[in-house]
Recover the amino acids of this structure.
């Protein structure tokens, strides 16, 4: 951009030089300031610098105003739930897995329009279960079919499991591995998208537990060796 300006200035000065050599010089070829002639190019440069200075000052003001607004605007959304410490005495599991907006029973969960998610094996409130979560659940179930057993060894159907009415059930080690890997992906996506995350998936203890599971091998020859608790977590 410097070249056109300079070449333009040069043309103006050459034009003025020719005018100076002409005896009958036009009064429009000069600007008089305090009785002294001032070339028109100087006036143009002065206007240009004023414009640039005004633009920079305006830009600086806009940036400072934006920074001030950002720094003084309180956060309105917290994607992760507040940490809940302690252990539920009846199950021995973290308190963050229970006492959420769905209540602590399947009847209460249905009353609050919650969805029983087969991937997390938890009753999820509407704001914690998105269409993407449904895709995760569908993909997870397609990896099966997963076996389901009561504690006495009685096998039950997937339809019965989907009711979310059992306190806990038993399933395979392979279910456990698939559960951990897909929940990690779900957690990663929700954090990146700024979406609410339930207290079960967000719990660091669950991540640590899944890390151990992925380093393990099947313990026994039993088809079912993983106990899965029905959960009612909070939502961020």
């Amino acid at each position: 951009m410097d070249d056109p300006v300079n070449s333009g200035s040069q043309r103006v000065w050459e034009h003025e030089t020719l005018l100076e050599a002409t005896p009958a010089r036009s009064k429009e070829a000069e600007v008089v300031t305090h009785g002294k002639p001032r070339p028109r190019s100087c006036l143009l440069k002065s206007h240009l610098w004023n414009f640039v200075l005004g633009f920079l000052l305006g830009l600086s003001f806009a940036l400072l105003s934006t920074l001030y607004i950002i720094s003084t605007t309180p956060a309105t959304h917290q994607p992760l739930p507040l940490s809940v410490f302690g252990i539920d005495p009846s199950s021995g599991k973290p308190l963050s897995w229970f006492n959420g907006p769905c209540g602590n029973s399947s009847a209460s969960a249905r009353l609050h329009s919650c969805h029983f998610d087969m991937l997390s094996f938890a009753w999820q409130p509407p704001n914690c279960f998105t269409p993407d979560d449904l895709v995760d659940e569908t993909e997870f179930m397609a990896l099966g079919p997963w076996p389901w057993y009561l504690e006495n060894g009685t096998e039950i159907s997937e339809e019965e499991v989907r009711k979310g009415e059992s306190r806990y059930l038993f399933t395979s080690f392979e279910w456990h591995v698939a559960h951990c890997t897909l929940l990690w992906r779900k957690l990663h996506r929700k954090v990146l998208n700024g979406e609410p995350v339930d207290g079960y998936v967000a719990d660091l203890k669950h991540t640590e537990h899944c890390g151990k599971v992925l380093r393990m091998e099947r313990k026994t020859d039993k088809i079912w060796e993983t106990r899965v608790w029905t959960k009612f977590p909070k939502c961020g």
Observations:
- The beta strands are 30-33, 36-39, 115-117, 122-124, 168-171, 226-229.
- The longest strand covers residues 30-33.
